[in-house]
What we know:
Number of helices: 4
Order of helices and strands: EHHEEHH
Strand content: 15-25%
Largest sheet: 3 strands, mixed
Number of strands: 3
Distance between the termini: 49 Å
Structural class: alpha+beta
Amino acid sequence: MLGPMGIGIRELRSGLAGFVRRAGSGESIVVTVAGRPAAVLGPIGGGAAPSLDELVAFGALRPPRARLGRPSIARERLPVDVRSDVELRKVR
Length: 92
């Protein structure tokens, strides 16, 4: 499936009626401001939202950094009267 079409705000202003007709027929149109996605113009309730992969491909989202798991953290019980900031400095 092709990703949503992207247009600039100036292009949207000059051809608004045509873009609204296209959105009404089911097409999703991403409106950009200064090259960055700002809004989506699409059909009312009938159109499917763009998938995460489509949004990543368009540049509206960044994929998460790969994590190979969290490092295990050794936990210790501390007495009640110990200051956490002091103990944290010791660990670091």
